[in-house]
Amino acid sequence: MKLELLQLSSPSLPVGAFSYSEGLEWLVQNKKVYDEKTLFNWIESELSRGQITIEASSIAHIMRDLVHWRDHKDTQYKLIIEEWNSWLSSLRDSSEVRSQQMQMGESLLQLLFDLDHPLPGNEKKFIWPIAWAWAGVCWGIPPIDLVEGFLYSWVANQLSAALRLLSLGPTKAQQLQKRSLILIKSQARYFLEQNPKQIWVSDVGAIMAQQSHVELYSRLFRS
After folding, report:
1. What is d(CA 173, CA 113) in angstroms, rounded to the nearest whole number?
2. What's the 3-state SS for the chain?
């Protein structure tokens, strides 16, 4: 495994992921998620049929197109990346999550710029999955490892949010992270073989939670 993947997946990566719950706070306040079992069911459901599945299955394709853009410096390849950006953004029904994706993507691309890995033309207006794919290209991370890291990082952020929302405890959170590894590995292998534009999702509950989060009377996390 490339050590750079550990840096990319680190909770200390300065992209602000810790400040979002992606609807989990709403689910907790409305008693849809209230203990270890319901939390893991939520994570398992999103990894299996949530919007993150389309993003994860797009990463290898985006990496290929980013390499073409980097190597040829051609406008047509930039347009392909912009199409990925628009398509993936449009799949997020919640405007709050779209804003989150853009903020985290720009933050990671700024970090990569500061680490001497700028996108062609020093572009930074791209969402999280594209920034993640660019990090993989820059650091030579194999697609399978990058997709596993993408899913692992999402689970870690959900568990981090859960620690502040539930009486969970760090040991229990680590147990849940470990339980998720088998599904992360199998899903990553599956996603590498899929056409992201042929994947269907069924996470209406997550979408409603994300859209309703901004309406909470008090919030720990950003909408």
Report:
1. 33
2. CCHHHHHHHCCCCCCCHHHECCCHHHHHHCCCCCCHHHHHHHHHHHHHHCCHHHHHHHHHHHHHHHHHHHHHCCHHHHHHHHHHHHHHHHCCCCHHHHHHHHHHHHHHHHHHHHCCCCCHHHCCCCCHHHHHHHHHHHCCCCHHHHHHHHHHHHHHHHHHHHHHHCCCCHHHHHHHHHHHHHHHHHHHHHHHCCCHHHCCCCCHHHHHHHHHHHHCCCCCCEC
Of the options 1.10.4190.10, 3.40.640.10, 3.40.50.261, 3.90.800.10, the CATH number for the domain spanning 19-215 = 1.10.4190.10
Q: Is it the case that residue 113 has pLDDT exceeding 80?
A: yes
Query: Contact 81/196 with Cβ under 8 angstroms?
Result: no
Examine the pLDDT at 1 and tell me if it is beyond 90. Answer: no
161 vs 163: CA distance, rounded Å: 5
Amino acid at 71: D
Backbone phi, psi, residue 47, to 5°:
-65, -25
Question: Amino acid identity of 194?
Answer: Q
| pLDDT above 70: residue 222 | yes
pLDDT band at residue 32 using 50, 70 and 90 as cut-offs: very high
Residue 18, pLDDT above cutoff 90: no
The model carries a pTM of 0.94
